[in-house]
Design brief:
Layout (H helix, E strand, L loop, with lengths): L8 H8 L6 H9 L1 H28 L2 H18 L23 H23 L32 H13 L7 H6 L3 H6 L1
Helix pairs in contact: 1-3
Length: 194
């Protein structure tokens, strides 16, 4: 016959707090005097703690204090709980909506929007047609600005100096990303030796 291990304190507390033990745990508690004694001791301790907490709460929350708090809550409910008001909406009488019956402010806004639209359309239509007597901007006047020319700049640098600068660039802080590419690239003297 195999011996079961003793129940943990956490599991015994769960059993004391009316959480039903499993069948094996119940059987173990019936046969093991050690676990049953620990369970009874924990049950007494929990009952004592509960009684002390209840006594302390009763000492702090006296019946007079609870009745005063209850009265304050009821006063606040009476004061805040006003009866609801019914708001009537003017749904029974509708004004006839005609163009002349609109509000004057709305007519002014609509007129300003229409005038802005007409001015914008006319300006867009006639913006490209300039009369001959109107001076054109310098960018449209032909030949008043000299055309841009490109000059070739000669920079003499020996191959040795170029390779030295390249090495300095590779050795710099950002050169670590280029290191694998540098390892793959053959050196000049390796290529010329072949």
């Amino acid at each position: 016959m195999m011996r079961q291990p003793h129940l943990s304190d956490d599991r015994l507390i769960d059993v004391c707090l009316d959480r039903a033990p499993a069948a094996l745990e119940r059987q173990h508690l019936e046969t093991c005097d050690v676990c049953e004694g620990r369970r009874a001791s924990l049950a007494r301790l929990l009952a004592d703690v509960s009684e002390v907490a209840r006594d302390e709460a009763d000492a702090v929350f006296t019946p007079e204090r609870l009745s005063k708090q209850h009265a304050r809550i009821l006063q606040r409910v009476d004061r805040e709980a006003r009866p609801g008001r019914i708001i009537s909406f003017p749904a029974g009488h509708r004004r006839g909506h005609t163009l002349l019956g609109a509000r004057p402010g709305m007519r002014w806004i609509a007129g300003a929007a229409a005038a802005g639209l007409v001015i914008g359309l006319l300006a867009g239509r006639f913006a490209h047609v300039l009369p001959a007597g109107v001076a054109r901007p310098a960018s449209q006047a032909g030949g008043s600005v000299a055309p841009a020319t490109l000059r070739a700049v000669s920079m003499t640098m020996s191959e040795e100096e170029f390779l030295g600068r390249l090495e300095v660039a590779i050795e710099g802080t950002s050169g670590s990303a280029l290191r694998p590419l540098d390892d793959l690239t053959p050196l000049v003297w390796e290529v010329s030796a072949r």
